[in-house]
Records
---
Amino acid sequence: MTTVAIIGGSGLTKLKNLHITRREVIRTPYGEPSAPMVFGQLCGSEAMFLPRHGPGHTIPPHEVNYRANIWAIKQTGVTRVIAVNAVGGISPDFQEPGTLVIPDQIIDYTYGRDHTFFGADQKQVTHVDFTYPYCDELRNVLIEAAKRAKLRVRGEGTYGATQGPRFESAAEILRMERDGADIVGMTGMPEAGLARELELCYASISVVVNPAAGMSKETISLREIEKNLETGMAKVRSLLEQAIPLIAGV
Ligand code: HPA
C-alpha cells in the first residue's frame, strides 16, 4: 500500500529514482490535477509522485489546480505528503543556494487562488486548526533522513508564500523579513492549507535556489536559479531515498 505522495516543484518534474509501475489519471470534482499520478518504488518502498507544474513544467504557480491535486492525492488513500518547493532565501542563514529547509511555519501572501474545500456548498461553516501548518511527525522523518544522507538541513523556518509569477520587490522582501519569513516561494499555499482540510500529514522540503530580491547585490538570474535547481534537487533525491523507507516503516 502506498503511504506517501511526493509533490515535485520546479526542477523536479520527474523523480529519476522512482521505478514506475503505473500511471493513473484521477478525476476530481475540482477538475484535472496537474498530471497523471505516477506510482512506483523508491529504494524498495512504495511511493507516488505528482509534478505540481505539470509533466512539462507549463503550469505557473498561480494557475496550479491545488484543490484537484490535493483531492486526487487523498483519493488514492495515502496519508502523508512530502511537498518539494524551490524558494528564495531571506534570513541570512537561509540565503546560500543549496540550503535545504524543513519549514515549521508559513505565512500566506497569495490571493485569488481557490484555497479551500469548505465553500458555501457546505452544510455548516467549517474551520480547521492551522496553528502548526506542517506535520511534525513527517518533518522529523525528513530531518532524520537528511542526517542519514549526510545533508545539512535547517529543521525550522518560516515560509512566506507569494502570488508570483514575478519575483518580489526588495521592499516586499524587507516587509516579509520583518514579518518573520525566512524563505519565500510561490507554491506553499494554498497547498498546505488544503492538505490540512483533508487531514493529510503534510511537510515541505524547501530548497533555496537564490538569495531573495535585494538580499544580494545582483538581480535574480534565471540561469543561476536553473543551475542551483539542478544541484538542489539532486540533494532532494538523496534525502527522499532515506525518507521513503523510513516512512514506509512507520
Ligand atoms: N521568490 C519567490 N519564489 C521563489 C524565489 C523567490 O526569490 N526563488 C524560487 N522561488
---
Amino acid sequence: MKYYIIFGPPGAGKGTHSELLVKKFSFLHISTGDLLRREIAKESEIGKKVKSLIDNGELADDETVLRLIENVIICPALECRGFILDGYPRNLKQALELDKLLAKRGSRINGVISLIVDEDTIVGRIRRRALIENRKDDLETETILHRIKTYHTCTEPLIDYYKSKGCYYSVDGSTTIEEGFESICRIIERLNSEQQ
Ligand code: ADP
C-alpha cells in the first residue's frame, strides 16, 4: 500500500489533482476537509463541534481529525493500491501522529507532492470556487487570508520535516491542470517503480 500526501496552500489544486490521481492509479482520495464537511452535513456530534471553526477558517482539533483519518485508512477496498492524503497532516503534531499510525501498519509516507502556487493565484482560484461550491469559508476575503496565514504558520513548516525524511517533491501548481498533473504523475511513477 502506498501513501502519498498532496500538499499546498488552500486553493492550490490538491482536490483537483487528487481526483485525477484516483482515476489513474486506483488510489483512494482522503480529503480531511471533505470528511469534516460530511460530518457537518450529517449534523453529527463531530460536525456540530467543528462547524463554526471551519466556517471561520480555523483548523479543527487534531484529535477529531485523527479519528476520522484512522477510520478511513483502516479498511480500504480490495482494489485500492494506495492513498492520497489531501489536507492532512496540517501541522507537525498531525505529521507525527500519521507516522505513528502508518508505522503500526508497517508502512510509511512514500512521497509528499507539494503544489507551489503564489498567493494572488490561490486567492483568485478560491474566489472562483466560491461561485461554484457552497463553502462558507470561501466567501469572505478575511477568512481566505486567515486560512492562508494558518497555512504559512502551521502547515508550511512540514516542508522541512518531509525534506529531512527525503520524501519531499515540489511541482509548479500555477501551470495548466494537464501540465501540473503530468509532473505529478512522473514523480509518482518513478517512486512506485523505485519502491516496489
Ligand atoms: P482548503 O485546503 O482549500 O482550505 P480543505 O477542504 O482542505 O480546504 O479544508 C477546509 C477546512 O477544513 C480547513 O480550513 C480546516 O478548518 C478543516 N481541516 C481540513 N483538514 C484539516 C486538518 N488536517 N486539521 C484540522 N483542520 C482541518
